[in-house]
Design goal:
Oligomer: single chain
Radius of gyration: 22 Å
CATH architecture of the largest domain: 3-Layer(aba) Sandwich
CATH topology of the largest domain: Rossmann fold
Number of helices: 7
Helix content: 10-25%
Length: 370
Amino acid sequence: MTSPAQPPAKTLVALSGGVDSSVAALLLRDAGLPVEAAYMKNWINEDNILGDCPWEQDIADARRVADQLGIPFRVVNLMDDYRERVVSYLLDGYTRGLTPNPDVMCNREIKFGVLRRWALDHGFAAVATGHYARREELPGHPGSFALTEGADPNKDQSYFLALLSQEQLRDARFPIGHLLKPQLRELARRAGLATAEKKDSQGICFIGQVKMADFLRAYVPDAPGPIVRADDGRVLGEHRGLHFFTLGQRKGIGIPSNTDGKAYVVVGKRAADRALLVAFDGAAAPGLFTREIEVHGLRWNTPAPPVPADGPLELSGRVRYRDPRVAMRFELTGPDRARVTFAQPQRGLASGQILAIHDGPRLLGGAVYL
């Protein structure tokens, strides 16, 4: 006597109220898979920070799409977890002079962390998102997966998934990774989705259209200090706090260019006297370009960490989102640390930023600049 076939496992779509996650839900539904949707309620702008925090509209849009698709919808309140795991990380990093990446941390800690655990506890087998990235089973390694760049080079978001683990990747789904953005918009229009023409959000992960400077001003006290030329020590002005600046920044420094039109750029921060170090932009700017850098917090998404056969690993890296991949030598110096040597000097690598580690289009993991 044969046992009855098990029903397909349910997938929970993180429906943000945008077009990308809407089409992700559409594709899963049209594939005949049991799918439900959830909006992650992470932030409601209760502190009245300047800027647009459209969570109520996003929930309404997400609910409308779920109704159009005929799939169950709920709101999952993750506000406490988001404050603890993302906002605290963000504010602590800037306070210590780092340049954190809340989008990378939101994916690791919230979407594929807290929400994933919530989903598994409630009978779901996977969490799907609207990321432009692709997940593929590794040949010869059943149950293990590789993460590769999205098919649309202008929208690829694999960088923001750099700190996921293999365990998180097993339970992740990226239904739109094979699409170009125009194709996705067309699918949304054909299906009549309420979000088909909605503009993409550009704000802080799940906070909204809030300028980072305004967000920091609301939570981190000003700590003024001098703006100093790195080459001769001349004081050019005063800043409101080192946390408002990052290495390589040109705009918003608060000092004019010289009479020749040369622009100043941030090349460093001096904690002892809270000095913001600047120089004229260019290859000769001291400290602006880096060929060798240390990273820590190393995290692989591979089934096993890559082991060099003889000497350093020859890999490539994406030093920032939207930067092209660059060749690099990757030498492990500890369990979660490495020394990275780039084939060409890289501009403005700031402590706290994320390095995405690649083998061609495949993303192997990520690390944080020291």
